[in-house]
Amino acid sequence: MLLRLTNSREFVALFHAVLRLGAVVVPVSPDLRAPQLDHIVRDCTPTLAVVESDDAEWGSTSVPSMDVAAAVADAAGTQVDETLTEVSPHDVALLVYTSGSTAAPKGVVCPHDRVVFAAKAIGERLGYRPTDVVYGRMPFSFDYGLYQILLAALTGASLALPRKPTDLEALQQIRDHGVTVVPLVPTLATTLHLLVTRDPRPTSVRRFTNTGAELTVEHTRRLRAAFPGADIISMYGMTECKRITISEPDDDLLRPGTVGKPLKGTEVSIVDESGAEVRPGAVGEILVRGSHVMAGYWNASVETVERFRRDPVTGAVQLHTGDYGWLDDDGDLHLVGRRDDIFKRRGVRVSTTEIEAAALAVGGVLEAAAVADVPDAGLVLWYTGDLAEAALRITLATRLDPARVPDRCVPLRDMPRTAHGKVDRKLLVENTARSGGHDV
User: Fold this and answer.
1) Which residues form a coiled coil (predicted)?
2) Within a domain: 67
């Protein structure tokens, strides 16, 4: 069953109901437009979809559907049938489509046992309490948001679901609901910092968690200044195995740059281009083994074989993440960048995340996204803030080596976002290719 809904009580109820029936949940963002939506529908061929009453985009599909208001009305007063389908732990629970920021979305096949393992392992490390109120701002179509439903259910915490899910109203919603735990991505972290500078009244927030895109040192500094007493937990993961590592609450102060140690039952190794494991401190591709590695991609056998490979010695499935990082002597993971973020310039291997972190440390810069390897454009830094382009480039030239200094710094009024709240890098690449990095 495809659920194309905003974060709501109705979504939570339908999510649990569909899983209990033994059917497969396919969460899809209401913000997806026709091309991506049509791709997902053709790929997974849902039996039924539940959509918002005003979902005009859905009308272009041929899948049987009902709007969520009708679904709730039909269920009211209905006798519950306790004769449920018997579900095997190996049956598919979820098809979660990747965001498709650089390619068409792929459906990650998530069996029940692997989802449960991941949720329990994450819950043990995050320390949610029965008294916690978790901010449900991250879209349920994004696995980071979706798993908040499971984490709240496992711990007895409450889940606060904003009626108007806009970042500009986030601080007021956090206060109104007495939120204590805020799952976020860097774009929301930036917005919350700005909102607090305008309205510094205290909140009940005790903990921030982050995944999806790395929080820089500047992000964590701003969050701690805006929310004194709250701690920050950085995490690393991907839809293909949900979560890989989780940091300790104060690692951003004591061990800046780490995304923590692997989850219980998870093994992480770093390998070079030949597949040989490297020593601590050496950079290579991140490989993951564990009971939370999902079952591959739906209708994509070639991509599944490429990413989900059998260890030739143990026979265990290893997820080849395509990300690069290194392990320190204590076993903590440090990210260097996604495969798509790393490029060679002037003979030097460079990561866009390094450039973005340097830009965020410059006063007057709120957000930054670097784009490289676009023909005739060079290295372009898109940013928001009130600092002049020339001033930013001059400052970066004093802090970065020549290989990492952008050819151009281009200001934006607003940073483009994906449906999951991340920076829309695909759109920035398209803008860079179209304009040569000279304007929007």
Assistant:
1) none
2) yes
Range of the domain at 243: 2-254
Say if residue 250 is in the same domain as residue 355: no
Strands in 139-185 per DSSP E: 158-160, 181-184
Those residues with Cβ within 8 angstroms of residue 80's Cβ, 6 or more apart along the chain or in another chain: none
Could you tell me if 87 and 187 lie in one domain?
A: yes
3-state helix, strand, coil in the chain (%, to 5): 35, 25, 40
Q: What is the mean pLDDT, run by run of 10 residues, along the chain of 440 residues?
A: 94 94 94 85 94 79 85 73 79 88 80 97 96 96 95 97 84 96 93 94 97 86 95 95 95 92 96 93 95 96 94 88 94 86 77 89 92 81 94 93 90 87 85 69
Last residue of a domain, one of 254, 272, 303: 254
| Same domain as 231, residue 376 | no
The CATH code of the domain that includes 386 is: 3.30.300.30
**Domain contains 262:** no
- Measured in whole angstroms, the distance separating CA 128 from the mean position of its chain's CA atoms is 19
- The secondary structure of residue 211, as a DSSP letter, is -
Using DSSP bridges, classify how beta strands 49-51 and 317-327 pair: parallel, antiparallel or unpaired: unpaired
Count of the separate structural domains present in the chain: 2
In angstroms, the Cα distances linking 90 to 118, 247, 253, 295, 336 are: 14, 30, 41, 10, 34
Q: Final residue of a domain: which of 254, 273, 304?
A: 254
- Among 329, 330, 333, CA closest to 257: 333
- Report how far residue 355's alpha carbon sits from residue 350's, in angstroms, rounded to the nearest whole number: 9
Which run of H or E residues covers position 434? helix 425-435
pTM of the model: 0.83
The residues, any chain, with a CB within 8 Å of residue 136's CB and separated by 6 or more, are 7, 145, 148, 159, 160, 161, 162
Beta-bridge partners for 96? 108
d(C-alpha 136, C-alpha 182), whole Å: 8
**Is 230 found in the same domain as 104?**
yes
